[in-house]
Amino acid sequence: MTAMARFGFDAFKARLTGLFRKDAEQGTAVPVRDWINVSSGQPTKLQGFDQPLIWVVVALVALGLVMVYSATVALPDSPKFAKYTPTFFLTRHILSIVIGTLCALVAVQIPVSVWERLSPWIFVASLLLLVLVLVPHVGKVVYGARRWIPLGVMNFQPSELAKLAIAMYAAGYMVRKMDVKENFLRAVLPMAISVAVIGLLLLAEPDMGAFLVIAAIAMGILFLGGVNGRMFFLITAVLVGAFVLMITFSEWRRERIFAYLNPWDEKYTLGKAYQLSHSLIAFGRGEIFGQGLGGSVEKLHYLPEAHTDFLLAVIGEELGFIGVACVIVAFFWLARRVFHIGRQAIALDRVFAGLFAQGIGIWMGGQAFINMGVNLGVLPTKGLTLPLMSYGGSAILMNLVALAIVLRVDIENRQMMRGGRA
């Protein structure tokens, strides 16, 4: 009886393994290793959440905290920051991380189905805040841009909420329009109008960098949602044309492009290319292993905004090529992991959750790529921070909340793979 029972179990296991492997090849299930241990015949133990994802996020936030302190510790020596203590930016950054972590812990408890129902309202709230920030005496002006709403403990930037909102709204929109996604007027045009409204509000601040990221998120979700290829390329051409026109008819934007093309020209080195030239000097000084933590010279009032837009340059100078390479690999892994969670959700027929997660992957990966490209002189200078690392309260807050919702998607994926419900 024992031999027959063993034979029966082996036959059942072989049949079950073949079924799951077949489903996995068709994209309808996860690989067999997530369901059964073929070598031992025992079910594998699935973790409740993606631990490597959390550890990579913690590592990036922790490194960002150290580098923000290193980049700002000498700022009080400047007359502009004479009233600040050496730990002013450090304590505010820690406060932002604590608030963001608490909000993330709340966000991860909320089912994805609730986020799907709330997505239109979150989108509307982001639009109202983008309008509110333009109201005089409400929005705070910094360097000629009106982008922040003072909240006491931090200055909230509505464009950061808009990035999360557009990822949710576009994912929910594609779920609702799945049956008519081949029809331009019914599927694509309403979404294009929504992005255009956000774009007009952001350009009024002005904040072209945030608009670029938001447009990329919306376009990416439309493409991944299965919008007709011809319509996708048409929208892409329209967006590229719009950006070209904005640059053509804006003198200071044209000057920034020319400065990017030749940052060492005497005309631009002390003007539009000042940040870029000093960023490149910082990377050059860093060489392979860097000058050592705290050894940056460029952060000593040479490189403006070293703790926000150009934090990677300080990392390059102090930690060298090795430090920069580690940061690049970490962001690549993070974006790839988030995309994997999204694909897994779609394979489990959870389209909203999957498209939303992939939208967050576009946000994190795309914005990190733009920031790194600007720091390294590969892309024109644009005011975008490095996600999870740069100084900025609302950016850290929304980054952590977005990744917490992705983690919730992963948790529900694992619950379904165990045979439960999301």
TrEMBL record:
GO terms for molecular function: lipid-linked peptidoglycan transporter activity; peptidoglycan glycosyltransferase activity. Its EC number is 2.4.99.28. Keywords: Cell cycle, Cell division, Cell inner membrane, Cell membrane, Cell shape, Cell wall biogenesis/degradation, Glycosyltransferase, Membrane, Peptidoglycan synthesis, Transferase, Transmembrane, Transmembrane helix. It is found in: Cell inner membrane; Cell membrane. GO terms for biological process: cell wall organization; FtsZ-dependent cytokinesis; peptidoglycan biosynthetic process; regulation of cell shape. The chain crosses the membrane at residues 53-75, 87-112, 118-138, 184-202, 208-225, 232-250, 310-335, 347-370, 390-411. It comes from the Bacteria. Pathway: Cell wall biogenesis; peptidoglycan biosynthesis. It is an enzyme of class 2 (transferase). Its main location: membrane. It catalyses: [GlcNAc-(1->4)-Mur2Ac(oyl-L-Ala-gamma-D-Glu-L-Lys-D-Ala-D-Ala)](n)-di-trans,octa-cis-undecaprenyl diphosphate + beta-D-GlcNAc-(1->4)-Mur2Ac(oyl-L-Ala-gamma-D-Glu-L-Lys-D-Ala-D-Ala)-di-trans,octa-cis-undecaprenyl diphosphate = [GlcNAc-(1->4)-Mur2Ac(oyl-L-Ala-gamma-D-Glu-L-Lys-D-Ala-D-Ala)](n+1)-di-trans,octa-cis-undecaprenyl diphosphate + di-trans,octa-cis-undecaprenyl diphosphate + H(+). The keyword Cell wall biogenesis/degradation applies. It is a multi-pass membrane protein. Pfam families: FTSW_RODA_SPOVE. The keyword Membrane applies. Belongs to the SEDS family. FtsW subfamily. Peptidoglycan polymerase that is essential for cell division. This is Probable peptidoglycan glycosyltransferase FtsW. It comes from Piscinibacter terrae. The gene is ftsW.
